[in-house]
Amino acid sequence: TQLLEQSPQFLSIQEGENLTVYCNSSSVFSSLQWYRQEPGEGPVLLVTVVTGGEVKKLKRLTFQFGDARKDSSLHITAAQTGDTGLYLCAGRPRGAQKLVFGQGTRLTINP
Amino acid sequence: EAGVAQSPRYKIIEKRQSVAFWCNPISGHATLYWYQQILGQGPKLLIQFQNNGVVDDSQLPKDRFSAERLKGVDSTLKIQPAKLEDSAVYLCASTFGSYNEQFFGPGTRLTVL
Questions:
Q1: What is the reported pLDDT for A96?
Q2: Is the CB of A46 inside 8 Å of chain B's CB atoms?
Q3: Which pLDDT value is given to residue B2?
Q4: Distance from CA of B15 to the nearest CA of A (A)
Q5: Whether the Cβ atoms of residue A18 and residue A79 lie closer than 8 Å to each other
Q6: Strands of A1-111, DSSP E
Q7: Could you give the dihedral angle defined by the CA atoms of residues B42, B44, B50 and B53, in that order, rounded to the nearest 10 degrees?
Q8: Nearest CA in chain A to B9
Q9: What is the dihedral of CA B82, B18, B48, B44, to 10 degrees?
Q10: How confident is the model at residue A1 (pLDDT cuts 50, 70, 90)?
Q11: Does A43 contact B at CB distance below 8 Å?
């Protein structure tokens, strides 16, 4: 069974600070996605990373896929209150059409 | 393009009652998923359909949960009888594309008393 462990589970910081969220596994994934979920809504896709070592940037968010495709990180620069939400990583196991989700990181950005 | 639709948005029932949820995926998306998300956790896959066939239902508690997808479009998920631990948000998602990027509906929040 493939498992994805996210850390930290909770993070509360001040607006303007930087932060990194980690997503780790002992299993290899063919691709990995990050989603953000706000209260009362479904998760919304932020990015998909496919190649080991791949780095993708989305404005102030930087996503990296580990060289061995077992882990990923999300870095936010100069966090804003609008970044508040539940961040979920999800990996696609090799040969499968499904996603395995981490337990999520609940991020709160305080003004 | 319309998103994934789900109804109802909220449902409160007593234990041992039955309940059904409905999902209409994005037009043209062949693959549909039902997830259970317990408060504070990530979504857990219950069942995956490809068109109207089941691909994966290994984590579906089949003694009480059932799901169908008629004509490869809409889907319903049923719980009968409900238990207290079934209190959760039930998410429907559909997908297309090489990397299984999923589009989620807003979810149905179920409370079992």
A1: 84
A2: no
A3: 81
A4: 23
A5: yes
A6: 5-7, 10-14, 19-24, 29-37, 44-49, 55-58, 61-65, 71-76, 85-93, 100-101, 105-110
A7: -160
A8: A40
A9: -30
A10: low
A11: yes
